[in-house]
Amino acid sequence: xxxxxxxxxxxxxxxLMTGVGAIPVLFGKHINRRNNDMMLGFAAGVMISASxxxxxxxxxxxxxxxxxxxxxxxLLAAAGIAAGAAFVAGLNESLPHEHFIIGPEGADPGALxxxxxxxxxxxxxxxxEGMAVGIGFGGGNMTNGLSLATGIGLQNAPEGLAVALAxxxxxxxxxxxxxxALATGMVEPVGGLLGIAMINVSVYVLPxxxxxxxxxxxxxxxxxxxxxxxxxxxxxxxTTGLIVGLILMMMLDVTLG
Length: 257
What we know:
There is one protein chain. By secondary structure, the protein is an all-alpha fold. It is built from 9 helices and 2 strands. The protein has helices spanning 3-22, 33-67, 70-94, 114-138, 142-169, 174-184, 188-201, 205-229, 235-256, and strands spanning 97-99, 103-105. A two-stranded antiparallel ribbon has the order 1-2. The model has no long low-confidence stretch (mean pLDDT 85).
């Protein structure tokens, strides 16, 4: 099967996990805040582990092979991480969006309905994840791409549930909450296609692409996910979830690799 098609399908599968995670809202299930924060901590741990084991370290290895210099490889990785973080920070500043807990951010939304502001916020979050999967496959390393797709899919499930529960808390119907949570993951195959296209431009783009995706995800973890999990005093449970997610993703990456 064509590597581009595989990458898009893998990023689509990862995105669909937001819908899988949101299924409990269809049956009126309620997840208490502590467990929700622990699951989001798990998602953060998976993303941290994926950023280092599936993106930064392979990026440094690729750059070392291309340029034959470890210091140059390290500098390129630093540049890629900084660029990825700056990219998401720029999106946060330029696009109007809203988080249900911390409120509106970015540009003036004008008359844009509040629900669309929330969808934009989740889109900013999910797009770099899709790019990461696409970049993983675009580099030709099937095991690395599969590891990324599996890890991001795992962390998308609790995020999908969190989105659906937040929507229910704002008065949205069960089905609407589920469908919107599912829709927020559908930007990931778009990001996946863009990631593959970036890498196929030139082999020299691969190290920067891998570390760029890592920087984008690390910014999201620090700027959004971890502060959210600590907001209600459940730091211990959230940190436990983070450690479990990090270890699980590390084992997954090592096993698949």
